[in-house]
Specification:
The protein is α+β, with helices and mostly antiparallel strands. The protein has three helices and six strands, in the order H-E-E-H-E-E-E-E-H. The protein is 19% helix and 41% strand.
Length: 149
């Protein structure tokens, strides 16, 4: 549905921190599914871990949050005037290691949405297995508020 060039229009992240490669489906105000292709060339594999390369759990959470951010961008009014920030992570669980060659299917759904915050339920899948899952909280700021931080 969206390729990397489209994703870069919605997310401020850039290499090496852009962790969503493609959006497969998006239902505004409801749910999204995306892909992160995990390759041995990822810079974090140099140190995590040199002998047994495993994607850091915090980056799996970040990939889920970025996918959720794209969903929010398409679910709020006047998205060009807003900025979405990660506010919190609850109930994060890691079920299996993610290694080079894996394709992470990132899924997020809106649980609750208010004017200034949103709660998402997210998971990262490798094939039919859940690699990670979490509840992600996002703050929705006016773009001008970002300058005040």
């Amino acid at each position: 549905m969206f390729k990397i060039e489209d994703i870069m229009k919605f997310l401020p992240h850039r290499y090496p921190f852009l962790l969503v490669d493609r959006i497969l489906s998006l239902e505004k105000g409801k749910a999204i599914a995306g892909i992160k292709n995990v390759t041995v060339n990822e810079p974090f594999f140099q140190g995590h871990f040199p002998e047994k390369k495993i994607m850091p759990g915090v980056l799996i959470i970040e990939a889920m949050a970025q996918c959720g951010g794209i969903l929010l961008y398409h679910s709020i009014d006047n998205p060009g005037e807003k900025f979405v920030l990660l506010r919190g992570v609850d109930r994060a669980r890691f079920r299996r290691p993610v290694v080079p060659g894996d394709t992470l299917r990132l899924e997020a759904e809106i649980v609750r949405m208010r004017e200034r915050f949103c709660e998402l339920r997210a998971k990262a899948m490798v094939g039919d297995e859940v690699a990670a899952e979490a509840e992600i909280l996002a703050a929705i700021l006016e773009a001008k508020e970002l300058n005040e931080l």
